[in-house]
Design a protein that fits this description.
Length: 196
């Protein structure tokens, strides 16, 4: 089957891209509004694009009414954010934070998560996350309707002994989850045991 993009409707392209480019990691982005209200939301158009220094990307759509999501508004206003990674036990809480709450709602409170003070940025980290990257905005650009946000990490916080003595990741302890299309997610630990 072939889909000529110019002749394919938006919904089909959405389903193809999100269902086929998988599994995607989930960047759980915490930011702070100029008024000081913490915000937290997950994004699976997310990845690393450089390692030294670490540069991460998230790609964020506008809301249906055309206004930017709180994450984009906060990052553009403050130039800072934290990308937290999502392990299996945080799955339900991550889903709660994906709801469209108004800007004055603090998603940490809604999901029962602990905001933890960051070292290099004002936005709080997710205390329960095993991995957090404290980032300053490196670049913002539009890719068609999406906001592509690139963040340069100033600090990587790694918790819970998920690194061995050589600094290699112990996936049994990290247990990151991956995003598939539709309602589906992967427990990457159980599925990561192909060694190459
Ligand atoms: C697993 C998951 C991945 C998501 N990935 C994206 C994404 O890559 N880009 C996006 O714009 N929205 C994505 N969303 C939806 C946002 O999380 C949602 O719009 C959220 O309300 C934005 O919050 P904010 O207004 O506080 O920034 C995703 C939701 C879930 C549950």
């Amino acid at each position: 089957m072939e889909f000529i993009v110019k002749e394919t409707d938006e919904d089909t392209l959405f389903r193809l891209v999100l269902g086929l480019v998988v599994p995607r990691p989930i960047g759980w982005v915490s930011s702070l509004s100029p008024e000081g209200i913490p915000n937290l939301a997950p994004f699976s158009f997310f990845n690393a694009v450089n390692d030294c220094p670490p540069v991460l990307m998230v790609s964020v759509s506008d809301r249906d009414d055309g206004t930017p999501k709180d994450t984009v508004r906060n990052i553009l206003a403050t130039g800072e954010f934290v990308v937290n990674l999502v392990s299996e036990e945080l799955f339900d809480k991550m889903l709660i934070t994906s709801k469209e709450f108004p800007p004055e709602v603090n998603e940490f409170e809604e999901a029962g998560l602990s905001p933890e003070e960051s070292r290099f940025v004002k936005a709080p980290r997710v205390g329960e996350s095993k991995v957090s990257f404290e980032c300053k905005l490196y670049k913002h650009m539009k890719v068609y309707d999406m906001h592509l946000i690139l963040g340069e990490a100033l600090l990587i916080r790694v918790r819970d002994n998920i690194l061995d003595e050589e600094g290699k990741v112990i996936y049994e302890r990290y247990k990151p989850i991956g995003r598939l299309g539709g309602k589906f997610y992967l427990r990457t630990f159980r599925d990561c045991l192909l060694e190459g």
